[in-house]
Structure formats: structure tokens, C-alpha cells
Amino acid sequence: MSADTTAARPVPARALPGSGEVRRHLLIAVVQNRTGVLNRVASLMRARDFNIESLSVSHTDSDDVSRMTISIHGDEFHVEQAIKQLYRLVDVLKVQDVTDEPSVQHELALVKVRATDRNRGEIVSIVEMYRGRVVDLATEAIVVEVTGTESEVDALIALLRGFGIKELVRTGAVVMARGSQSIEEATKR
Amino acid sequence: MTITKGASPRGSVHSHVPDAGTTAADAIEKARRDMLHQGRITKRTRIGADVVCEALLRQGVDVLFGYPGGVVLPLYDVLGDYPEIRHILVRHEQGAAHAADGYARATGKVGVCLGTSGPGATNLVTGIATAQLDSVPMVAITGNVPGALIGKDAFQEIDITGITLPMTKHNYLVRTADELPAVFAEAFHIARSGRPGPVHIDITKDALQAETRATHPDHDAVLAALPGFRPTLDGHPRQLKLVAQEIARAKRPLILAGHGILIAEAWDELRELAEKAQIPVTWTLLGIGAMDETHPLAYGYMGMHGWKHVNRAIQSADLLIALGMRFDDRVTGNVRTYAPHARIVHVDIDPAEIGKNVAVDVPVVGDVKRVLAALLPLVAPVDHETRAAYAEQLAEWRRESEGSSWHGSGMWRNGLLSADYVIERIGAANDHDATMVADVGQNQMWTARYAGYRRPHSHLSSGGLGTMGYGMPAAMGAALGRPDKKTWAVVGDGGFQMTVQELATLVQDDIPVKIALLDNHKLGMIRQWQELVYAGNYHSSEMVGPDYLKLADAYGIPAWKATRPEEVDAAIHAANAVDGPALVWFEIASEQNVFPMMPAGKGLSDLIEDLEDQE
């Protein structure tokens, strides 16, 4: 019978969970609309050391259910852990990682751009190319609204930066999977 | 023999509650019950505080550990109308939380504690966190300032739900009396279901005072209100088949039994699995008691201060079957070198535990009792012969390691009293049937290693949070929860002095906790690390303590002191012979270490042993 096998040849180290390949994941969380639920989710993410890039919350068509879109950085193991930890919250009904799903991922930005009589027309035509629109007009500035994917919004902002951006606000992405499936109709897990 | 007995006899301190069994007490009890059944609150309106008491009764709560304060006075004002709920007035709210925790661990029921707003609530926090880390079912109730004052920095106002949010399973801020029935029903359901844990309910003073006609929900209504809380109880059949295959294939399988076995009351199924497939059973700190230690397949306690033979078996195993445990760092050490030959089966009711600390080959999510019951028919029986060589090797390792760090004569070096001996004698003197409640530090590890456990829930210990000061108040709860068993608190002089004020609670409510004080005049585990890891730089580990005989005497608690091995048994028996609380002061060797020890960051194969330290 073999003796103490630990003393024999060197053994490869036990693999740690996860691949270490870090990228951005987009999660949808459907939660009960109770007081403090945003606080619970944010607190959990902080306590468990998950790296959140953006988090947006909104109502759904149902009064007692809210929906969050969470953008998080990590490898697939890290993100799976985040999902499992979210499920431990009593108020969380359903969490889905839609990173690799066909989905619509849009955000909205409002940009207050420096504008003069000379360049106002040029700014407006750039904005129109990005299907944005001017929502306010003042003597020395205009406010532009644009929606689109993160990279579309990035691209417009990069162009507007040349004119001078006085103020910028972005909502962060909101996401919806394509097709007729509904995360809100699905039961938990 | 120089056993010193504490001076004052018991009986000089009177409990505020008449002794049960006397005629007078019976009469009072009967009158109160009559009042209850006749509708005791007909002469006043039913308020939120009544709802709290009704809810506790509906949940079967018979003891409440608490401390009054301004905003919970409405509750204390009606508490007397509910005599079935025994209120234990602690001396510090931390004691209330630990007592509720000890009650819960000893009984498997939900423990309940109560504090006022502000400091009362923050004092509960350490005890709530202790329960959270060890998955202990608890409902912690606090009062808060009237709703109109919330957010105004009112007297004794603090955002306590903000504080307990990350350290509870769930929490509530209740601002109207009408919400109370549903909140309490949900809280108890959440605390005890799935992976248990503490739930905190913060109630504003005006909610306690407001009149209400709200009715208590039934179980279905509770479930309907919690669509996001549906613990998975049954293991997936496909996974169970895989587990059976792993067991059939394994040559050196090992079971790692954790707290989950005790929580799920799965000790019979555990033993059946071990016997059917001839698999030795090891256990974590909180898994102690999952298997009778005298069972031939019971192999021992694992981890940082576990037995060398157990850690060696883990390192040589080809299959680890982890049941209701979470691969804590005190169990694995360096994960990279942990069980290098083993495939891992991991059964846990909390999906988040699976793959959290180690990568798992076969995960099973479910209640471990149900999982094992479903698994057992799938497991092919293995006879003893098949595993004879494996069993023989494990037996040989055990023989080698069991003598280590054991001082059978009762003497450590230079004739000083040895702590391991004291613990072994306490275990033996109680026929290994007492509830042993450890504090934290060296005393905790000695208690885990040497008392010898035969039954579930006979060992209580703050494992996850490692809360010094836990021992005595938790023993208080355990003694009330299991009055049929002797309860021994094993405390060091450090932890004892953190919650020593609860001695008065033991006396006032006549709670028969026996305290074994292992006094080395040191923070022993700190000193041990300083000796072994910090090159003998003994900073802040010396401890001056009082004369504990005089201290016990001042509280009216009989006490004995033992400094030599031959005094140990007599002192233990003397304490056991007392009806109420008693204390034994063991003056132990001040520089004795707990061996073996796995240094932080190292693996299970890198145990430090003290070869001089063996007889």
C-alpha cells in the first residue's frame, strides 16, 4: 500500500477559482421596490470588493419591482460570485449577466457646450450626425442631448470637447436583452 | 490539598423571580395565565408593543435577553402582561446578543435579544456580527426615536439599520405599528430558513406606542411577501449521481463535516454515509459534535490548530466531501497547497459559498440533510476490508499525533498546571455530555481539541468572528435553552474580563453556568504568536486580573481555585455540585502554547510542533 503520498513528488498547486481574465460585465438585477434596496446592493458591492463602474436604478412597469443595471469589472468567477452574493439579498428577485447576450445597451448624455454665433451651426450639424438634439440654446452655450451606445456617446463627446465642454452628465448604460424573453416575467433563478 | 472555596454561600442573593415550584410562584403564574386567557388587555388599547409580544409568542419564544432604555419603555410597559416570555436583564447589550446566540446554537431555535436606540443598539452589534459569521438564527430588536425625529440627531439616535445592513441576513426599520405583524413573521422565517442568520428589526418609539388592529399573517402570506427568498433545499439529482460516482472511484476519501450538519440536524445521515462507504470523518471548529468522537470513523478536528493526523489525511486524500462548511482560511491555510491530490465535492445550502474559496469539482446546492438522504441510496456500500490499508495508515498517523501537545500528568513544564489536562477533566467529569462554551483564543483551541464530544450542539464557539467575551454570556443562553444539560463556559482571563459583568445576570436569574477560568495572566494566543512569529516581542500581552475568588464572592457566586493537577477533579465536581452558577479558577502555566499550529499564509503540511512539549 502506498505510504504518505504528500511526501513524494512535487504536486502542482491547486488552481484558484476563475481565469483572471478581467473585463466589463453588464448585469441586470430585478429587485423588490423596498426602502433601502439600492443601499443594500451598493453596500454589498463595496463590502465584497466588487468593482462597480456604473449602477442605474429605475421603476419597471410594476410598482413593487425595480430594475438595476450594474456595470462591473472582473473575471467570470468574480462576476459569478457577485451574482450569487446579490441573490443572498432578500429583496433581489433575479440577476442576469447579459454581457454576452444580444442586447440593447444605451445611455443618455447631456452636454453643455461652449457655442458662439460663428460655430453654433457646426456644432448642431455634428450633433445631428449622432442623432442627438439640441435641448437648450443660450447666448454662449447650447445643451445637447444624445442617446446611444457607450462608444457612440464617447465619440460625440470627443468631438464636442474641441468646442469646450462646460458641463457633462451621463446616465450610465441601461440594458435590455433582445427578443421576446423577459427577465421581469421570469421567476427568480 | 489546597482547594480554596469562595466565601459566601449561595442564597444570600435573591432572584426577583420567585423560585419555580413553590406554591406562591404557582399562584402568581396561574393568575397571570388567567389574565392572559381572559383578554388581559381589555382595559387598554392594543398597541405596537403588544404586537411585538404576540409575535414572539407565536414564534415560540420563551426567553428574551434585553436591556431597557427610553424608546423601548413602551415595550417594557406591556412585557409583564406576557409572562410566558421570560425576560433576562443582562448587564450590557453585547451580553444579550451573545446569550441569544448561545441559546440558538444550543437549541437550534431562534434566539432573541433586545436593546434600546443609540448605544443600546450599537452595543448589540458585536453579538449580531458574531451570529452572522457563524450562521446563527437570531432576531435582534432595537427601539429607535419617534419617526418625526429620525434624521434630526435626536437624543440616542443613530442610524442602526445602516450599521447592521452589511452584517445581517436582512434588516427592517419599522415606523408604523401596522407593519409589525408582517415584519416579525418575515424576520423569524428569514432568520431560521435556508442558511440561518441574524435579522435585525428597528422599531420607532411611536410605532411601539400606536394603537393597531393589524393581524398576524399566516405562513403562506409570509412566503408570498418574500418572492426573493427561496432557499434551494434539494440537491440536483444529476449532481447527486456525480457525487456517488466520485465516492465509488475514490481510494482515499475524507468527509469534512461543518456547522451545516448541526444546523440541518443531519448527524444521522452523516454517520450513515460514513459507515456505508467507510469514509473517515473530520470536522471544522463549528462542526464539532457532528459525529460522536468515539465512533471508529471519527477522525478529528482539522485546520490551523487541528490535529496533525487530520491535516495529514486531508493533504493525502484523493476526495474531499465537504458537507456544510465553507473552506475558511483557518481550515485551508494557503489554498494553493491545500489537499493537492483531492477532487472536491462541496455541499452547501448557500450557493455563494460554492467556489468562493476553493475551486470545486462537484458542487451540490441544498440542505445537507436532504442531500445526504437522497444521496445515500445512490452510494455503493464499501466494506471495511476494501479500505483496510487506508484505515491502517490513518490509524498509524493518529497514534503518532495524538500524543503531541498532550500532558497526561496534568503538568506542563516545571510542574505548572496544563490547560489541555484541565479541559479533558471537565469533559470527563461531565460524561462528555455538558454543553461546552468556549471563549476565544488558546482556551478555545484547547476546548475544541481536548473535551471529547459525543453529541450535537455540545460545543459552542465563536468561529468566524472570533469574538473575545463570547463565552460566558453565550453559556448563559445555552444554559437557559438546555436546562437538562450542564453548561460549562471555558474562558481565558482576557475574554472573561471583557464581559465579566454578566456574573450579576447569572445570579439575578439563577442561571446555572459553570465557569472554567483558564488564567495564565496573559493574552495567551497573542503571546504565542509573539513568541513564534514576532521573535518574542511581548508587547501588551501581559494581563493583570483581580482576585477571582473575591470577585466571585462579591457577586455571591461560589468559587474554587486549582493550581495543581490533583486539585482539578475536586474543583470541577464541587462546581458541578452547586445548583446555580459557580466558578473554578484554574491558574495554568503562563507560557503554554497550543500545538500544532499552522502559521498564517502557510499550508496544512507546514505545521509547527513543539517537540520538547511532549511527554
Structure description:
The complex is a heterodimer of chains A (189) and B (615). In chain A, 24% of the residues lie in helices and 37% in strands. By secondary structure, chain A is an alpha+beta fold. Chain A folds into 2 domains: 23-101, ACT domain (Alpha-Beta Plaits, 2-Layer Sandwich); 104-174, Alpha-Beta Plaits, CATH 3.30.70. In chain A, strands 5, 6, 7, 8 and 9 form a 5-stranded antiparallel beta sheet that branches. Chain A has a 4-stranded antiparallel beta sheet with strand order 2-3-1-4, covered by helices on one side. In chain A, a hairpin with a 5-residue loop joins strand 2 (51-59) and strand 3. By secondary structure, chain B is of the alpha/beta class. Chain B has 3 domains: 44-225, Thiamin diphosphate (ThDP)-binding fold, Pyr/PP domains (Rossmann fold, 3-Layer(aba) Sandwich), CATH 3.40.50.970; 237-396, TPP-binding domain (Rossmann fold, 3-Layer(aba) Sandwich), CATH 3.40.50; 406-594, Rossmann fold, CATH 3.40.50.970. Chain B contains 24 helices and 19 strands. Chain B has a 7-stranded mixed beta sheet, sandwiched between helices. Chain B starts with a strand and ends in a 28-residue tail after the last strand. The interface between A and B is large, with 36 and 37 residues.
